[in-house]
Write a structure and sequence with these properties.
It holds the Pfam family RasGEF. This is Ras-specific guanine nucleotide-releasing factor 2. This protein is mainly alpha-helical. It has a domain of 132 residues: Ras guanine-nucleotide exchange factors catalytic domain (Son of Sevenless (SoS) protein, Chain S, domain 2), CATH 1.10.840.10. It contains 11 helices and no strands. α8 runs antiparallel to α9.
Length: 195
């Protein structure tokens, strides 16, 4: 629950930081900076971070800003496409699973992928066999997922702690809610009536 909340907070923070810019050029620059951060996350094997940022950019409040996106450079748009391919949920996160299989820890996988797997197993597989025995096949599937998550927790990152960065990332006063973000988006670029 805490991990999911943190994911949502980070995604909201990114969206809020972009929407805090009043002029189109600054907003485009902010998108470019956040995508550079997402690429650094990818280089550090922090796929959760990549997803937090790309999901923020795909929110309707930001995605709909055509004038802002028009100012984002081609290389950045290409980078966004590459990052989104890696973390896409397509084919049960096929590309991300492949990437994780070939990645050396330390690594922060996208936990939502594992939560989906666990929910799928829980919903689709009974706890007991028809004979009333414990369904060990189900328990093995759950154990395999938990083992994979734990494997990524074995190697710590060797990154110097930056208190200012931590303070910024955890500052809830910087986060706007979904409705505020969308309202702001409509003020920045009003809907164009179909003509």
């Amino acid at each position: 629950m805490k991990t999911s909340q943190h994911f949502n907070d980070m995604s909201n923070l990114v969206a809020s930081q972009i929407m805090a810019h009043t002029d189109v050029g600054s907003r485009a620059s902010s998108i470019e900076k956040w995508l550079a951060v997402a690429d650094i996350c990818r280089c550090l094997n922090n796929y959760n971070g990549v997803l937090e940022i790309t999901s923020a950019l795909n929110r309707s409040a930001i995605y709909r800003l055509k004038k802002t996106w028009a100012k984002v450079c081609k290389q950045t748009k290409a980078l966004m496409d590459r990052l989104q391919k890696v973390v896409s949920s397509e084919g049960r996160f096929k590309n991300l699973r492949e990437t994780l299989k070939n990645c050396n820890p330390p690594c922060v996988p996208y936990l939502g992928m594992y939560l989906t797997d666990l929910a799928f197993i829980e919903e689709g597989t009974p706890n007991f066999t028809e004979e009333g025995l414990v369904n060990f096949s189900k328990m093995r599937m759950i154990s395999h997922i938990i083992r994979e998550i734990r494997q990524f927790q074995q190697a710590p990152y060797r990154i110097e702690h930056q208190p200012k960065v931590t303070q910024f990332l955890l500052d809830k006063t910087l986060i706007m809610d979904e409705d505020t973000l969308y309202e702001l988006s409509l003020n920045i670029e009003p809907r164009v009536p179909p003509g």
